[in-house]
Specification:
By secondary structure, this protein is mostly beta strands. The protein is about 10% helix and about 35% strand.
Length: about 1100
């Protein structure tokens, strides 16, 4: 069709639209134009589900049982595309169907739609259609249509500008026959046309659909050979399935595509090496986004099962390299949908990946999918563990992300498919919409057990076992952004809680009122068409790009000062949704009557600015007059420089499976060290280091050369220990090593001379040296730890009174699990008291009363806050003359966030085998009874007597702890914690007030604390050691910390520094901390130990 003919047809359509009142009344404003938005009404935030009889969108994505039996991959459902295909100013809808024709609905206005599929020629009969996107692939300013299919050619329909499409699949080059799901498009190489990424899952499943698998043992390992050798992998004696290679196509600008070779130099691993062969992931969705801020589209691909998600960084020329695994530390196991948004409005995009974890604890107890259970070595930072939950990644602004789903309240959203960020209530903060549901709950443990009891059955019968699983009809989920990186679920309040198997979802403005409406394609259920009811002021933006990127795909839109707050930002997308694609329009919150500006950063590093924007308008912004962006150089200097090579120390540990002994342990008990101390051991005027641990059986002495370079001393000892206390007594330097038993050494000329061994029963955990009586002799307090098999009972702590070198022991048997102890004059009475950090308990004060340690008699504000306290530091951080307490805790980003507080720990030796049975429980607020946190499998391994009564997981989930344990519960005691935050207890002289530390300090479990003035402003700053890899492998690991430096203001407040400011990035399990001047420049330096990794040395600049 000639260009002239196209223009004539377009003109006629425009005239028809004018007659019906559809086209928008654009007003010119220089190089741009705007139109007044339709009245938004006065509704409350949320959605109205539109009646299909009224709208005419009467559509169901059908799938017959006959087809389902032979191809379970079709249960992944289908999607929807939104866009104005006929340029009449109204957004249209295209819905995909698996078993039958797809449907194109033309928008007639007033929420009425007309089925024009036959006229348009886009029915795609006789194919399993999965995904669709409207996009201008040939740059002629009308929307073409791409449709993906399962096991049949993906199809490209070229818009003929007359309401009809032409199938150009054969000439386009995209018509391969993989099992495709989603697509995403972007101008990856800067040539102004849109290139195409196709996500492939698998035309059929070997494991789900029952194929004959030839399994042999080779060198003692199970291996698959034959036709499925490339599709099946054994991990921990379990079979896992690969998918099919994704496809990446370059566009020639006219809608003809050339497939790229995955083994070329265009694609590199994170190590910079080319791939030996195409990867075969089970891909579900992909999205292009400028992840690193260089104005080039990067790529994130969400993959199902053990095939891990992939994040590719574009060099600006269309060459991609996998992002460092240190940038994205962990992944969802069965990743489905993904979306990006700046959730905290700091100018950096965050992103959210959905998985399958249930929001119902009862359902979580009955479900369990297959996941590899191999433990990761603590020092293996480059391995990205997967877990069965959603992941939310908050951008740190340095190219790395902190995973915060537990903290943010979005870890669970049921069996989820699409996830979309949308500011539903137009308050300037991006909310989240999630579709979910599945026809069969294939994770149901009871049904899995039932099927396994069938034994070996014919393939035809095996294929039908899926019908034994119960349905999983769960409501869609909406999370409201609270503006503090946290969300609350409001699906019912916003009218978004329909129970259908919702798969693909897309957004578009169907009534031209500026907010984005939505539609969800449901498997075997009606399509859900949602009218957005938001009435708050808004501004909408669409773009006109240069060249053949006609809708400005990939451009970033920023609305600045529209609410008198920080910027809002979004990108224009093409595809990128789970099997779906949005209309190329974005909406932002605004304030009526206020002037604000809109900035558009285009691919290619140019910017367009609209300075006098107002609410209530749709702006069409053109790229033609954009100006180059001036790059500002970052002159910010970091406080510390990583000098760890000068230290040259690597902690090594051995793996021990504590869960074999006590299956219900909250975490392994052997992750507490290594421990550090600093002292001038060789009396040469500089500070040396000592390192010890119980799992690395040595006490290493690292001698400093005065310039911050260390050498291991020949006087190091081959003794394990849980701490080192250096002190001076009678002008002699001494050391208490918390070995078993605790040992006292004299330090002479850099050598440790054993002086005494203390009569301490069991294993010590921490100690402090102080003069309790004021007699000049140094006394010792040593706390006891809990040992494997006896957890949570701890060895009695003990005070050793020094009587001229003879130590008299006084026991403190009921003090609990003490993780650390510090000495200081807490009550300002002139003598030294003790403060104890305790697990499953409160922080304890032992007040010195005339040389006797006694627990504080009155509540000083500490008893209320029971926690999993790990460390404490004493310092006057608010300048009032009293010692405050800084305490580290588990934080707010762990699986405990799935449960209301408090968490109780039941314990007792109910079967008299000298091993304590334990159970973590919580109070179910709906049923008002105590429920077990762990599943029946773990519970029955702990309490074997349960197996006979509770043979079904559903029965166990519906019960409560009292009923499950019966009379055994009367033999058990309990302890609990109700506080997870790390924080400070401010001391006003008579009482303590707890103030949590900033949210960055809550994103990972905290351990060691160091309170010093690091930046020289005479106020106390804090450094906190973070991360915990000791939890059961199914929960992955808690690794969102990298060591946190917080600067104090002298009034009790702290401000976190990012890595660019501090210079500190530590990825392992950080534990011990010492601060001292190690290189003689009179500035405080920092040493931080890690488990099974290098000890880090940071010198101040």
């Amino acid at each position: 069709m000639s260009t002239l003919t196209r223009k004539i047809i377009f003109f006629l359509i425009t005239l028809l639209s004018l007659e019906k009142g559809f086209t928008l009344d654009w007003q010119r404003d220089g190089e741009h134009q705007w139109v007044q938005l339709e009245d938004a009404g006065s509704g409350k935030p949320g959605f109205t589900l539109m009646d299909p009889a009224r709208t005419g969108v009467q559509f169901t994505n059908t799938l017959s049982s006959r087809i389902l039996i032979s191809n379970k991959n079709l249960l992944n459902g289908s999607g929807v595309a939104m866009g104005d295909y006929n340029n009449d100013g109204l957004c249209d809808i295209y819905l995909c169907r698996l078993d039958g024709d797809n449907v194109l609905y033309r928008n007639l206005g007033e929420w009425k739609f007309e089925n024009v599929t036959e006229i348009a020629g886009v029915a795609c009969p006789s194919q399993f259609s999965t995904g669709a996107t409207f996009v201008d692939v040939d740059g002629d300013q009308d929307l073409d249509l791409i449709v993906t299919a399962m096991g049949q050619p993906n199809r490209l329909f070229q818009n003929q500008s007359n309401g009809k499409f032409k199938d150009i699949t054969d000439s386009s080059g995209i018509g391969t026959r993989y099992g495709s799901s989603s697509i995403a498009l972007a101008d990856i190489d800067g040539d102004s046309d849109l290139d195409l990424y196709v996500v492939n899952y698998g035309a059929k499943s070997v494991l789900k659909d029952g194929g004959k698998i030839d399994i042999v043992k080779i060198n003692g390992k199970l291996t698959v050979r034959g036709p499925f050798a490339s599709r099946i992998k054994f991990i921990d004696n379990q079979m896992f399935e690969y998918g099919e290679p994704d496809e990446f196509f370059l566009n020639d600008g006219n809608g003809k595509f050339t497939k790229l070779d995955w083994t070329s130099d265009r694609f590199l691993t994170h190590e910079g090496k080319p791939f030996r062969e195409p990867y075969r992931d089970q891909g579900l969705s992909a999205i292009f986004r400028d992840i690193n801020g260089d104005r080039s589209p990067d790529l994130f691909v969400a993959n199902d099962g053990f095939t891990k998600d992939r994040c590719w960084i574009n060099d600006g020329k269309g060459n991609f390299r996998e992002i460092s695994p240190l940038a994205i530390r962990q992944l969802s196991f069965s990743a489905m949908g993904v979306d990006f948004a700046d959730i905290n409005r700091d100018g950096h995009d965050d992103f959210f990946v959905v998985e399958m974890l249930s929001r119902s604890h009862d359902r979580r107890l009955t479900q369990q999918g297959t996941i590899p259970a191999n433990p990761l070595a603590p020092g293996n930072f480059t391995e990205q563990p997967q877990s069965r939950r959603n992941c939310l990644y908050i951008n740190r602004g340095d190219g790395t992300f902190a995973e915060t789903a537990y903290y943010s309240g979005v870890a669970a959203s049921e069996w989820s498919w699409s996830s979309i960020f949308l500011d539903v209530d137009l308050d300037g903060w991006e909310d989240i919409l999630v579709t979910n549901g599945f026809e069969f709950d294939t994770d149901d443990l009871d049904t899995q057990s039932k099927i396994s009891r069938l034994g070996k059955i014919p393939i035809a019968q095996k294929r039908k076992t899926i019908f034994l699983f119960p349905p999983l009809d769960t409501p869609n989920v909406a999370f409201r952004n609270l503006g503090n990186s946290r969300f609350e679920e409001v699906g019912a309040e916003w009218g978004f809680d329909d129970k259908h198997d919702g798969n693909g979802m897309a957004l578009g403005d169907l009534d031209n009122d500026g907010d984005l409406d939505g539609i969800v394609n449901c498997l075997k259920g009606p399509a859900l068409l949602y009218k957005n009811n938001a009435s708050a002021p808004r501004v909408a933006v669409c773009l006109v790009g240069n060249g053949k990127n006609t809708e400005g795909t990939g451009a970033r839109i920023r609305v600045i000062n529209s609410l008198g707050q920080r910027q809002q930002s979004q990108e224009i997308m093409a595809g990128g949704r789970y099997v779906s694609g949005d209309q190329a329009r974005r909406t932002f919150a605004a304030k009526a009557g206020e002037i604000f500006s809109i900035e558009v950063d285009w691919i290619g590093n140019t910017r367009t600015t609209i300075k006098n924007a107002t609410a209530g308008r749709l702006y069409e912004i053109q790229q033609k007059q954009s100006q180059p962006i001036l790059v500002k150089k970052n002159s910010e200097s970091a406080l510390f420089v990583d000098s760890s090579l000068e230290l040259n120390h690597h902690h090594k540990t051995t793996y021990r499976d504590d869960f074999e002994v006590q299956p219900s342990l909250p975490k392994s008990l052997n992750h507490s060290g290594p421990f550090l101390s600093a002292s001038d051991i060789d009396k040469d005027g500089d500070m040396d280091l000592l390192v010890t641990d119980t799992n690395d059986p040595q006490l290493s002495i690292l001698i400093n050369d005065g310039n911050g370079k260390f050498t291991k001393s020949i006087n190091s000892l081959q003794n394990a220990g849980s701490g080192i206390i250096i002190y001076s007594e009678n002008q002699t330097q001494k050391m208490l090593h918390l070995s078993k038993p605790p040992s006292l050494y004299k330090i002479t000329n850099g050598e440790l001379l054993l002086n005494n061994q203390l009569n301490f029963t069991g294993s010590p955990s921490a100690a402090v040296a102080f003069d309790i009586e004021g007699d000049g002799d140094i006394d010792l307090f040593i706390s006891g730890k809990s040992s494997l098999g006896q957890f949570p009972i701890a060895t009695s702590s003990a005070l050793f009174i020094n009587n001229n070198g003879t130590y008299v022991k006084k026991l403190f048997p009921e003090i609990g699990i003490v993780k650390n102890v510090e000495a200081g004059d807490i009550d300002n009475d002139g003598d030294v008291d003790l403060v104890l950090a305790r697990e499953w308990n409160s922080i304890s004060l032992l007040i010195n009363e005339n040389g006797q340690l006694k627990e504080a008699k009155k509540d000083l504000g500490l008893n209320t806050f029971t926690g999993l306290w790990q460390d404490i530091e004493l310092s006057d951080i608010d300048g009032n003359g009293t010692l405050d307490i800084i305490a580290s805790n588990i934080g707010l980003n762990t699986a405990y966030e799935l449960h209301p507080m408090p968490i109780k720990l039941l314990y007792g030796d109910t079967d008299a085998d000298d091993i304590f049975e334990i159970a973590e429980i919580f109070l179910d607020p709906l049923k008002n009874n105590w429920k077990p946190i762990r599943k029946l499998e773990i519970f029955s391994r702990t309490f074997p007597q349960v197996r006979g009564t509770y043979t079904r997981n559903q029965l166990f989930a519906n019960s409560n702890v009292a009923r499950i344990l019966g009379s055994a519960i009367s033999e058990m005691k309990s302890m609990e914690f109700n506080t997870r935050e790390s924080g400070v207890f401010l001391n006003n002289g008579t009482k303590f007030t707890f103030i949590p530390l900033p949210f960055e300090a809550q994103l990972a479990p905290a351990f060691g604390i160091c309170a010093k003035d690091f930046n020289g402003d005479s106020s106390i700053d804090l450094f906190i050691a973070q991360n915990d890899f000791s939890i059961p492998t199914r929960y992955s690991r808690y690794d969102s910390g990298r060591g946190l430096l917080l600067t104090g203001d002298g009034k009790g407040n702290f401000n976190p520094l990012n890595s660019k400011q501090s210079g500190i990035m530590i990825y392992g399990e950080q534990r011990g901390i010492v601060a001292s001047d190690f290189n003689g420049d009179k500035k405080l330096d920092l040493v931080v130990s890690q488990r099974d990794a290098i000890t880090k040395l940071y010198l101040q600049k």
